[in-house]
Amino acid sequence: MRFLTWLKPTWSQLHIWNYFGSIKQMIDLAKENPDSEFFLFLANMHGFTQVHNQKEMQENSISAVKLYLACGADAKQFVIYNPADIPAHAQLNWVLTCITHMWFMERMHSYKDALDKWKAKEIWVWVFCYPILMAADILLYDANIVPVGKDQKQHVEYARDIAQKFNKIFWETFILPEAKVNSELWLIIWTDGRKMSKSYNNLIWLLDDEAIILKKIKQIPTGSQTVEESKNPDECNVYSLCKLFITETEDAELRKKYLAWGLSYKYAKEYLFEKIMDFLRPIQEKYNKISDQEIKDLLTKNAKYVNEISEKKIKDIYDKIGFNL
Ligand code: TRP
């Protein structure tokens, strides 16, 4: 069984939302499926839609892969590669473009969302065509399962439909991929009372240092109950953040403390700080130990393996189409 997932180099470092919303789920899934391969590609062809700066692109790419490994991805089970090293992504992209109707792309939520914001002539062509490249990324490797966020489910369904179409015209070629929608986090993370978002700069990044984290935790708004009053943990932002980092037993104890008297919000914030740092420190230490060269070597090694698979696939496709004479 082959899983396929991605890693976007649009941010120079990942935040805890990326971690719990995707990376951790992927690493857990890999542990639950020890006999499966996890193809993890650096979505730089996709990131290019937003990043137009050579240095930023290179540095973000390397940093993103490093962080994934530092978070615990096993480099033997996760085949991490750079699609820029694999010409077949672009080749299959064109093949699929030629058998896709406009109306199919016009149905995509991502395009419709863009139409809500801009006039059609102001929208980049990539917004319209993006699902086609995505389908190429998936179908090239006969991926069985594609774990994605809810917003990407429709794109995987398109990949499935277009694979079916190709199979019908040219005989069975592609495996039909299935989307596996990541479970959504049970909370919206706040550090300043607003939704966690890059534009508010209220995220906790995996590489933030102690001083920054302390500052962000201090900003978390709390209720106004005194130490003596009992508090409802389910209405407390500090508690909901803590929940991400603690075990079930610790959770039960913390809830008890909230409901009884004697817990100050100051204590809750110190507790949160300690738990976040316990979680981040090993990741940061591991990250700092990995050199850029190690990442480049890993990508080069994996490109060889992945190219063997993709070249075979694209040859089969080209043969069926009649490109190979
Ligand atoms: N579209 C995905 C996103 O932005 C990224 C992506 C590109 C992807 N190609 C893919 C995801 C192939 C899964 C499979 O979230």
Characterize the structure shown:
This protein has 325 residues and is mainly alpha-helical. It folds into 2 domains: 2-188 and 291-321, HUPs (Rossmann fold, 3-Layer(aba) Sandwich); 210-286, Tyrosyl-Transfer RNA Synthetase. It is built from 13 helices and 5 strands. It has helices at residues 16-32, 44-47, 54-70, 88-97, 102-106, 109-117, 125-139, 153-170, 210-218, 237-245, 248-259, 265-289, 292-321, and strands at residues 2-7, 37-42, 78-81, 145-148, 178-181. The strands form 2 sheets. It has a 3-stranded parallel β-sheet with strand order 1-2-3. A two-stranded parallel ribbon has the order 4-5. The protein is elongated, with a radius of gyration of 23 Å. The mean pLDDT is 93. The structure holds tryptophan. The site of tryptophan has 12 residues, from strand 1, helix 7 and strand 4.
